[in-house]
Write a structure and sequence with these properties.
Helix content is 47%, strand content 10%. It has 15 helices and 8 strands. The protein has a 3-stranded antiparallel β-sheet, with helices on one face. A 3-stranded antiparallel β-sheet has the order 4-5-8. It has a two-stranded antiparallel sheet with strand order 6-7. β2 and β3 form a beta hairpin. α6 packs antiparallel against α7 and α12 runs antiparallel to α13. The protein starts with a strand and ends with a helix.
Amino acid sequence: MSIRKRTWKNADGADTTVWVADVADANGHRERRQFESRKEADAWRIATEGSMRAGTFRGDAAKFTVKDAATRFLEHCEHRRKRGERMTQRNYDVMDGHIGNYICRDPNRHEGKSRPARLKEFDGGIGSIKLSQLTTRSVNDFRDRLRDAGVTVVTTRKILSTLQQLLGYALNRDMIGINVAKGVKVVGRRDEGARKIVPPTKEAMRALLTIANEDFRVKLAFASATGVRAGELHALRWHHLDFVKGEVKVETRVDAFGEEDVTKTSAGMRTIPLSQPLILMLKEWKLRTKRKKASDLVFPNERGSYTNHDNMVKRKFLPLFGLLAKKHEEERLNSPPPERFNWHALRHFAVSCWIDAGLSPKTVQTFAGHSSLQVTMDRYGHLFKSDDHRRAMDQIAADMFG
């Protein structure tokens, strides 16, 4: 580390004086900075020596912007996707969207395309910031700009998760010395947290199962009884089912691009018990279907490949509600037809039935494949019966007040 004074004459004859600080890291990388005063040069020297001792100094951080790191990060993710290393096309597209729409805002990203309806107008990205100048405060300010633009708590958390992964990549490539996005929290209003789940009623499910044709009824019954996610359902193969033990092993999922992978998290790999009526329906379905080898999909499309979920929902699932409405009108039934709900609500229905049957929160978490018990309670805690709680409070009151 050295600091020296440098003076030269300008074209107009005036003198210009600066203080030049040189630094070299352990890898021999040299960096030079100019300052208007010796005091500023000394302050930079002291800070840099401290970061060197702490192992957080990275000379290259002054060269690269967040956008530079993002470009390299996405290239890395694309190579991972091609190698099949826990990176699906869906994972890549989500992170690419977070980066292009928010972190390193690209105003021409949707030119000539239909702009997603849920995408918020945002011009507060941090792509132009040098990695050396990116601080925890910068990330906190970025978070606040996202929230001010109307981005939800959940989406903001996902965007910051992508930023944390991006900076984690930069850290591993010695582009930075610390991940300043790590630990940044997103706190919303008390009424803005995870929405409480309102599952379909048993009456509504019975009506759907009754009006569905024989083959689609099996898929409806399986989804509403096991609570598997759509991607898990479409990747299910016959060898995952054990009719003797009466259970299904959930081990894989398929995304919208037809790429099969293991479940979303390790908790997603789970075993769910099956009821005898459901086992009977599955056995009868296996007798009817042309594809019954152990490696065959349980619910394939006509070509024996993965079912396109959106097409299935549009062509088979949603029309059931129209048929029910027509039936109510023709038969002049007093009760209104079930209100339309999405396919994912079948998962909520399954979980609500487990809770109603008295299964413990931990068991519900296991069967649902939630990453933590906190996730289960945040989404479904209000569905657990509170009779025992009330009895406990009554007993406490009796002991206190006689």
